[in-house]
Automatic annotation (TrEMBL), chains A, B, C:
Residues 137-263 form the Proliferating cell nuclear antigen PCNA C-terminal domain. GO terms for molecular function: DNA binding. It holds the Pfam family PCNA_C. The lineage of its organism: Eukaryota, Viridiplantae, Streptophyta, Embryophyta, Tracheophyta. This is DNA sliding clamp PCNA. Belongs to the PCNA family. GO terms for cellular component: nucleus. GO terms for biological process: DNA replication. It comes from Urochloa decumbens.
Length: 295, 295, 295
């Protein structure tokens, strides 16, 4: 027996709305200890999404035994949209029924109840192996933490110029660069050296272990930036050997993580040449190597 | 000589905007005693609309002798949209001119006047015989009065799931049910037994003479729900022998009435079986028979 | 060296947004004395746009020597949209570089800078000879000054009825008239005879030297009305021998000027007949002759 309770307009619903354009069907696991976790691959198999909602995210969370199920995100979102403002939403799954789950919407006036029986999809088909964070951390050459609204704006502006972004990290700054027919745009975030506590929340912080420069598809970057309104900060972890991770933290243990491979080396070099011509800023430290989506 | 005066943004204009997507050309009758009445059939001849604006709806109402005319609703709405905020709108028809009516917009500053000569259409072609309310009332097995916003929300949510809605009335409650690929949604409004005066306006009241269950096309239901923002309450009258009537009352004597036939029996039975499987809630009392649009 | 500084959301940016749908590529001239001027022809060569931003429009304006360049308006607007709220925008052109100009966006927090290198287009191809205002003034038979919001509303409403507008000026009033399938609309602005100072800003003033009646394409009129939100007043100058000019004044010396030829005589006469039939208002004074776009 799984029972989750949430309010209309809760973080859970808003996060699902934010991932809707990237992923279609997802594999969900619930357990008493870790909470509600969800994994999905985008339709073109370029990005992997991993989500953990700890039990504290829900108004009420009960999970008698671990369970897995496959969910069509769009249908789940459609179901959640059926709630009116102020409705209490209860999601229930029966251990003996793997065909559907029930969402119940109760109005505060108690005069109306709605039940949505949501058909489940095949969970196994959508399961993905995500590398352990412990293993990943040591492989990142640079970790950037920045205000999520600035990340979103940068991705949006750059995608007006071109299809790809070059993200380059040096000790002093992080540069997002795109070029296209109309010209080229380069957005530079400087590492703030001395910060008092109050400034830290709105600052861009860079933990650069090695200089790095990688190219990513801007349409995917825009998808990764979608949850910006729900979280103040975003963390971008870059590596030449494992996929980039874009992470939003949910409370203490939860998260939304997007994993995405950069574009391959040959294009990177061409792009870098182009960038050098345009910007007269070399990217010598570039050690990008081809990499597989999973390590 | 017919002369109507109204303000920009009046009920008259808003109601025409609300019926615009359902009906195209309408037959209008004006008389000194009853006011401005309008009848129209939707383009697919599934729904009939009947409207009565009593003379009190207008700022000024003068009708020297009864007159009929055919109006293209979209053109009338386009004409009314030409008024600027605060304009006084005067609609004039000449007894000797059956080709057009004139809308005059006068700005409160008096420095600008606009005249719109609206071409009329053939009134006869759009005249419909609507059964008398006196006759109809006794034929309804159930009459539901509910907040119009809840009616609209229910129709909207259900049409995200499927194409049809099953409306079932028992002594205790009214159920709106739809099913589709993603699952099924059932919205239940409970009859409030004990209500104080202040609650009555927001309650759902059911006058059930016989249990009844009927199927309707949700796209038409959505059209019937359109005027929800203009009226607090909607009344839904269900019958197995005459078309459903959805009614919004305008002041004391006026109304907007939508008449719509349910879907035919054979489909209803299939739908009911599907519903029974999904919901394990039988609908034994169903006596739905085929019926014609007009009795 | 050219250096312009402006704030996000400034008049400069808003004006470019307003002319975006009419013109594509423009020829720009900057000088220390007159400021930033821009000329463009619409893609169908029906309308000419001439703009002058005096140096006071900018927060900072430096122009060491006169310069010309070709700008793709859409790309410039795209570049300006990259600024975040509160950003300071600097536009720089190098006298030795005719390939691109640089827009720099600096956030007030100083932690982020963005550079947009905007590719220039061929300036010569878009240069237009605009007749001198001194020469033009004497050729106008009528000059109308009216609130720009009323001009915009009239154009919008008329374009719901038909494709063309007939503008007729007599000593007493200005009439905008359109007709189409659904009927015809005639909007009359009366000349206010006695006005106190406070009323003058919202009044319609007509300087009629000779009665005149001309026909214009409403889609172009709508384009001319686009900047209505940025300026209180618009001036419309009508002539049978030179193109109509629609003008918005920017501070003391600046302006946006749209020049547009009326539709040719043969159509005008037919339209006039139609108007006469519909309105029973003759337009005897009409002396419209064929004219070329440039005098």
């Amino acid at each position: 027996m799984l029972e989750l309770q949430l309010m209309k307009g809760s973080l859970f619903e808003n996060v699902l709305e934010a991932i809707l354009d990237l992923v279609n069907q997802a594999s969900v696991n619930c357990s008493a200890s870790t909470g509600f976790s969800l994994m999905a691959v985008d339709t073109k198999s370029v990005a992997i999404l991993s989500l953990l909602f700890p039990s504290e995210v829900f108004q009420h969370y009960r999970c008698d035994e671990d369970c897995s199920m496959g969910i069509a995100i769009a249908d789940m979102v459609k179901a959640l949209r059926c709630a009116n403002d102020d409705d209490i939403i209860t999601i229930e799954a029966d251990d003996s029924n793997y065909n559907d789950i029930t969402l119940t919407f109760e109005s505060p006036k108690k005069n109306c109840t709605a039940d949505y029986d949501l058909r489940l999809v095949d969970a196994e088909r959508h399961r993905v192996q995500i590398p352990d964070w412990q293993d990943l951390d040591s492989k990142y050459q640079a970790i950037i933490r920045m205000p999520s609204a600035e990340f979103m704006h940068s991705c949006k502006h750059l995608s007006n110029i071109g299809d790809d972004v070059v993200i380059s990290v040096t000790k002093e700054d992080v540069t997002f660069f795109a070029s296209g027919q109309s010209g080229c745009l380069s957005i530079v975030y400087r590492q703030n050296e001395t910060l008092d506590k109050s400034e830290e929340a709105t600052a861009t912080l860079v933990d650069m272990r090695e200089p790095i420069s990688l190219i990513f598809d801007l349409s995917y970057m825009n998808s990764c930036a979608k949850p910006f309104a729900l979280f103040d900060q975003v963390t971008i972890c870059l590596s030449t050997t494992v996929p980039m991770m874009v992470e939003y933290k949910i409370k203490e243990k939860g998260y939304i993580r997007y994993f995405m491979a950069p574009k391959v080396e040959i294009e990177i070099e061409e792009e870098e040449e182009r960038k050098t011509e345009n910007e007269e800023a070399g990217a010598e430290g570039n050690k990008t190597r081809g990499m597989k989506m999973q390590d």
